[in-house]
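Following up on my earlier thread - several people asked me to post the actual chain instead of describing it. Fair enough. Here it is, all 180 residues.
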Amino acid sequence: MKGALAALGAAVALAAPAVAGAQDLGLETLIEARDQYFAGNCAAAQPTFRAFIARLDVNNPREAALVTTARKYHAACLYAQRSEAEAREVLAQMLRDDPDARVDQPFDPGFVLFFAQILHDLQGELEKVRTDRVLSRRDAEARRAAREQLLRAMATTESRVDEVPRSLMWVPFGVGQFAN
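Reply from S.P.:
Thanks for posting it. Predicted structure:
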């Protein structure tokens, strides 16, 4: 139980300062649903977790930890209700979004083994996700460095622009053509 509180507290600590406030994320709702899970009332907690997950953006680094935490509890509720196929889908999506996510202390040992099996089944796909993310970061860094180099070159290069008066173009006998 203390591990669950620490994990949820860490997720809140990571996400809460970056947003306008804890009220915006509905953290009280997440905590209440988690408490319902621990009380054994998974039927009531499951829709709350689903709604909480749908409200947040997993691509936002400030909300990703909360989404991962909510998905763990949502999958645990589904597993406790014997909806293993749905729990597998939720955990698989959680791992695709956060390949380094783990399930441990506060959960049922059977659920932890269930997660370990899913983790084992998806290992190849998760390695590909990790590799793609590393390559994406490298590409983004290379683009940023190239742009910075271009801006530096543009800032240090001097060019001279001569403005030719348009009135010279009206000089007769084609003399104006030499003004360009």
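Confidence is low (pLDDT under 50) at residues 4-8, 14-23. That should answer part of your original question.
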